Amino acid sequence: MFEGRGMGGLKEALKGIPLIPATILVMVVAAGLLGPSVVPYDPVETNLPDSFLPPIWKEGGRMTHPLGTDQFGRDVLSRLVVGARISLLVGCMAVFFSGFFGTVVAITSGYLGGSVDAFLMRMTDAMLSMPYLLIGVALAGIMGPGLINLVIVLAVLGWASYARVIRSEVLRLKTQEFIALARIAGCSTVRILWKHIFPNIANTMIVLGTLQLGITIILAASLSFLGMGVPPPTPEWGLMVAEGREYLSTAWWLATLPGTCILLTCLAANLLGDWLRLRLDPKYRQRA
Amino acid sequence: MKEIILQVEDLRTYFSTKSGVVKAVDGVNFSVGMGETLGIVGESGCGKSVTALSILRLVPAPAGQIVGGKIFLRGEDLLKKTEKQMQKIRGRRISMILQDPMTSLDPLFTIGDQLAEPIRIHQRDQTTDVLTRVREMLSLVKIPSPETRMNDYPHQMSGGMRQRIVGAIALACQPELLIADEPTTSLDVTIQAQFLSLLKDIQDTLGVAMIVVTHDFGIVAKICHRVAVMYAGKIVETADVKRLFRNPTHPYTIALMKSLPKLGVEVQRLFTIGGQPPDLRHLTKGCSFAPRCSQVMDICKIEYPPQTKVGDDHYICCYLAGKGGAS
Fold first, then answer.
1. Model confidence, pTM
2. Which ipTM did the prediction report?
């Protein structure tokens, strides 16, 4: 009913968006959505006669395989595109679940305080103090390879940093007088949490989510690299880096190209998260 | 005779801490009538804010508990109500405004949205036209161009305007009692005067009973009808405002008045009350002001003085009362 001034349509909403990161992310998402249906080659089918073809800009490269082929003759471009789907899927799901769980812990802990807070924070501290890669490897080892298991492992590793940061936001909010005034006006605890606390931390959650996406994709890649994530021959970017490692001196593109994809996706996510944070803060909204 | 809206009897609110029980409010009695403003004055830590919170039953638990007394809102004892019942009373029948306007509004919602919230919580079933009501409230607190202003965000308003919005939100459901806890402390002086005049006008218009908690006698003089002076968790003097200024009777009140610098009167040194307020964890027997009182007597250290009437609607807790008042 009461529209704040400066909230126009989609064009207005996307004002100031950093174009390059947005484009990169749109491409990655498009690859993820369309993936297997648009790639020229089957990413897992081997084709040994055509193995180790370099990318098109190098001597010996061919138009048919613009980014070259790997040791089994599989088209790198196709594997990258399908790999995007897996990386994004794993990344987004893991971030969603760890974010959800971490936020619930943070709000409960921060708002209720007392012994609940102490207990939950000790658990969070325990999680944060453990070396995450070791835990990841151990957990993945126990659970076995597979997409769902990877998501679970990543979610378990990620919730603690969410909880810590969001809890301090909640604590800061509790000291603001509008929360006390909401109680004075007759708001129930649930209403305060839903209407006042949650929207005010949503900004932080989103930014944290984009940061976590980058970290999670790298973590997923690391686990796959160590053989603990998605099993071969599934084209996962981290796995591709691992498999390409031994050919670094001869067929460098096998490890470098997927690595670049990981880098660009993380960077794009971070930069967009930064823009989103500014965009969502009412103070930065431009007046029409 | 005005109808009594709020009657507080022997209210006691204690805080349990590791180093002992803090008796923040220790047997407080007062009443407020319709259309009347009661000022609760005292220095920092005397228990005035805790008294205000106790009326709304928002004392921070579990450390803080109301351990005794009765609070009657038009005859209903608030201390016997459940939390759900209190939620219906807060904002609807009793409202409060706080000290810091800069954090008193949610930065994510427009002014209009926040003004509408108490109406949405309490008057859902009634066919209240929220938009009209919001416009009315903004006009009541004299915000210019309410149509455009209601779509503004808090950060687009000055401190004085925000405090007026807070006042409007508090009055949105037309409560019977409004408590203002140091409402002007964060505002600059000219805005303070404006805000106090506004409160007075609103009271004349709506007939709402008010309690103003403050440490500033200037505010008391400007808008209060009656005053209660608090010290160390107890009320030491209650009087009509004119009587209090003309004839302060309790030694603490007299000392407080003496410490106020007066315009046009030159002094070499400002008067101060010697000593410190007592540690509320270890209150001694007898009158809590005795260690600092210039006219202390032996009996003052033995037993706390009972409330005595020293004039028309003028009460003090002091043994000097019987001896024709303090000098």
1. 0.81
2. 0.82
